[in-house]
Amino acid sequence: MKLKTVFKNLKANLPKNNPEICGVSANSRNVKRGYLFFAIKGIHTNGEIYINDAVKKGAAAIVSQNSKILKKYKVPVVIVKDIPSVLDVCSHRIYGHPSKQIKTLAITGTDGKTTVSYLIESIYKTADKKSAVIGTINYRLGKKIISKAVNTTPLACDIADMLSYFKSKKADLAILETSAHSLSQKRTGSVLFDAAIFTGLSQDHLDYYKTMDRYFSAKKILFKMLSDASNKKSPKYAILNGDDAKTNQIKKILSNKVKVVEFGLKPKNKWRAENIKSTLNSTAFNLVCPKGKFKVRLKLLGDYNVYNALAALAFADTQNINIKTAVKGVENLRGIAGRMQSVGKVRRFHVIVDFAHTPAAVKKTLTLIKSLRPNKIYTVIGCGGDRDRTKRPIMASAVCKSSDYVFFTADNPRDENQNRIFADMLKGVKGKHKNYKVIADRKKAVEQAIKKTRTGDVVLLAGKGHEEGIIIKNKIIPYNDKLTAEKVLRKLKK
Description:
By secondary structure, the protein is an alpha/beta fold.
């Protein structure tokens, strides 16, 4: 595709040259001959410093917001004002608008996106259908891992590229975990979705959005996209958490061409669960839906995973997947890395790794564990740096209230001083709770927590989940909660 065709009807200062463009990237390491390279200025780096690398690798043209670089390079330079929007539109043009030819599902909400994606993936596998996932843990097609995830929702050029690949491999469905940031930053603007799931809303990302209203407004962008007249896909579905207070606001912005399906625990929902029973090994419930009543036994734990299962089952029904097959699919999912993941059992106590890193998620996880009547609960938790500071005291207070003892430790301090993070957390507990200890070294915190346990106790390692490193400044220090716990447990067995 010629450069000028790529930028047709877009606001851009185009060069005289009109080279052929065969791909697009905002990462110089991924550039190939004939690619269009977007030099994006981000929070931590400026893409302009990588232009020479992109040119050496064969970039046919450069896109930037900085007009001062016009004559610096031998290849043509395109100047634009709104680089995120232009990247989105150009990427989907270059890759042939793949979402027109493949079914796409967006999952948004503060918590549950990853679990719902895995549950739907398991349903499709059980139904002998091929699904692909762009999500928090990795980007994959069936058993093939394309890459580990850099962001929950990657840049528009990567989304378009992967959707094109999924289409070429004849995937029946592409699932996108769709974060609020990605919607605000126009990473998904050109994706034509067939359906969108809303798992619910709770406090997170206020460092970026400042208020919950702004955070929710970002989530609503997805449903405006689903309703937009330019998305001519039919039928289109909004699968919404009927028990969440924000769902009614979403319903108000949906066009009459979008069919609404609500799930939850309250009787008003057409897809609901009754008679929920949880153990440390499974969660059973009775599914009540338009197709009848069915017994479901998940290998996942907690009421919040009942919600996740309901969302997946309701979506599967919109895609004409047999309900019994769908139930079998959610039952087949054995677990997800870092999501209520049991590490092992020594002296009859449990160690659980969970990604819970918001006040609501931490509260739900600890409520679940308490409902199983353990002897004592020991929790290891931290808060990320350069993120929402207002949630730190809330999380600290909630975890001390629901645990017998808490170890406050590092999460991902990034560029923020760890002592300031601890100070914010301690504002929520000083004068209220005494059942905590601050240990900055996460490995030592995990070790001390496990060594305190006795028969019938539970150790919860919260916040890191599947992550394989701790981010300190611009470095990632190798670390994993599960592997650390396993090492401590092996020592206890000796």
